[in-house]
Amino acid sequence: MMANQAKKIWMDGTIVDAARAQVHVLSHTLHYGVGAFEGIRCYPTADGPAIFRLEEHVQRLLTSARLYKMPVPYSAAEIVQAIDDTQIANGIVPSYIRPIIYRGEPSLGVKNQTGKVSLAVAAVPAKKYLGEDSDSGVRAKISPFRKPHSDAIPSAAKAVGNYTNSYLAGVDAAQDGYEEAILLDQNGYVAEGSGENIFLVRDGTVYTPGPESDILLGVTRSAILTIAQDLGYPVVEKLLSVNELLTAQEAFFSGTYAEIAPIREVSHYVVGDGTAGPITREIMQTFYRTVTGKEAKYAKWLHRVGPTATAGSVGGSRHAAPSKSTA
Questions:
Q1: Which residue, 150, 194, 211, 213, is the most exposed by fewest CB within 10 angstroms?
Q2: Could you give the CA distance from residue 227 to residue 206 in angstroms, rounded to a whole number?
Q3: What span, in angstroms and rounded, lies between the C-alpha atoms of 232 and 235?
Q4: Domains and CATH numbers, the chain
Q5: Stretch 106-115: mean pLDDT
Q6: For position 234, what pLDDT does the model report?
Q7: CA distances, 23 to each of 28, 119, 124, 204 (Å)
Q8: Which residues form the catalytic set?
């Protein structure tokens, strides 16, 4: 993420210059990784900027905070308002939006549950997370680092500390010349990428790991499940072996930051013919038409940004008073 290109950041109800968005060095979240965040994209459409599946992202953010015993002092509607205000204040389209719930006050001690719980929201220019050529396919490595079992770290939470695992896997893959890592679960089945869910295609059926593989249940992932089924492809959630991955006819990653990225190679094994397969391409095309407002069937997934913001199930800036702003 190009954090240095953020202009304005929403912090507990006030929009401040990015350079003034500061947190104490002894904050609990910095030291112990106890925090929750989301990655959300805003796209240009013919009707103005639109955020993809905003309500679902906000609900997952609140679920993550609840799993980590963080009482959030904002409602879902207020968080939607904060995200709207941040997007408008920065005026960046397309953008990548990062809300984060954290304890920012100085507090040492693992079991801290008394410090203030805060919310901040940033918006930065969006880019292709896995590289500008990722639509043509990426190379991925099966990581030596495995996903922790949800009995140890709850995979349902998009939590700050969870991503040390992703960091180790991603850096290991990058140092070996790959664009991404593929992590296995504790039983050796395929789980997910370092920041994405994974799909395989075989004989016209789309396969993806389910919750039993300790994956994060991605918001984009659930959209892909719907799109694939609507296109007429059977979708199966199941345990996937490494052999099934290496012999797949097609494979791709999905995620808010990565969007849809075909996988052309896994640990030096070419997937299919080494290009994006026909089913992957059809899903990709439908997805990109959806996020840019060209698929009426999925219009409910788009939250229009602005004073009269509308969405399929979230009313945007009509829910709360505007945020304060400081220079």
A1: 211
A2: 11
A3: 9
A4: 3-126+296-322 (3.30.470.10), 134-291 (3.20.10.10)
A5: 88
A6: 98
A7: 10, 12, 19, 50
A8: 158
